[in-house]
Amino acid sequence: MSNNIIHAYAAMSAGAALEPYQFDAGELQPHQVEVKVEYCGLCHSDISVLNNDWGSSVYPVVAGHEIIGIITQLGGEAKGLKVGQRVGIGWTAESCQYCDPCISGQQVLCTGGQVATIVGHAGGFADKVRAGWQWVIPLPEDLDPESAGPLLCGGITVFDPILKHQIQAIHHVGVIGIGGLGHIAIKLLKAWGCEITAFTSNLDKTDELKAMGADHVVNSRDVAALKAQRGKFDLLLSTVNVTLNWQAYLATLAPNGTVHMLGLPLEPMQIPAGMLIGGAKSVTGSPTGSPAALRQLLQFAARKNIAPQIEVFSISQLNQAIEHLHSGKARYRIVLKADFEA
């Protein structure tokens, strides 16, 4: 049997249950690395691609982009890695390395041929996965491989804005929506030394969120509670996919403060220009992060002993895991353990 056969779970059409699937990946390309999957996180973005919510899915879809595993093959052009090394792969599998963003170290903004790990490419719901060597990130020995996977998507998504906006320990940061992304943001910001306010629609989480590191917890839909926060925040990280009262949130910003969008509400944001001009405020957004930022995140997480809160399912329980995520009961990230038969 060819060594290039990959065993996976795939959706054959939008909304279909995942089923066993195998394919021949062909010869490893010189710039690629092949990784035997040990663990793979389950993210809401996987669900969006499986269901073709963004209109970009290519079926069969093998999802999974929070991958932890062991290098089994190296292409001849791969640099700085070795067979047997434990590594991670996140949302991006390849970038061109020659466009201006790539040359400037912003490969996550590649305009010359970026390849998402799960769009037109087979992801980590499989026994093996391949990616360009720059996007194969060495895992520090002090990080637990079982829980590290969600750092490669959820983690970097909230970490990159901390770097981008030059957040320091003197700053007050609000996190809107405390789910898979939001809970990691709280843990990172706590280790960063910031004052943290968690905005959630479920105040039953208050004690849990304070145990994670939140200094304050506010009802995200309570207009009076939002008014009490006026002028406080240097940065608001919004992880929600629903429309909120954005004008009320802009009013909570300090001068030069920023609302940074990480979730994808379907409706346009209604924001008067005067609210931005008056306090030199801004609304920004970002995808995940560059290979350099990913390496920094994993090193920081290892140094500060930061790990996502996870629930573990076997890869053979993938459909049950997806249903658990749909139910809203996941606390707070789901990780799949690869258990393909040899």
Automatic annotation (TrEMBL):
Xref: CDD domains: CAD1
Boundaries of every Enoyl reductase (ER) domain copy: 15-336
Obligatory cofactor(s): Zn(2+)
Keyword tags: Metal-binding, NADP, Oxidoreductase, Zinc
Enzymatic class: oxidoreductase
UniProt cross-references to InterPro entries, sorted A to Z: ADH-like_C, ADH-like_N, ADH_Zn_CS, CAD-like, D-isomer_DH_CS1, ER, GroES-like_sf, NAD(P)-bd_dom_sf
Molecular function (Gene Ontology), one example: alcohol dehydrogenase (NADP+) activity
SMART domains: PKS_ER
Enzyme Commission no: 1.1.1.2
Family to which the UniProt record says this protein belongs: Belongs to the zinc-containing alcohol dehydrogenase family.
Name this polypeptide is given: alcohol dehydrogenase (NADP(+))
Organism, scientific name: Acinetobacter pseudolwoffii
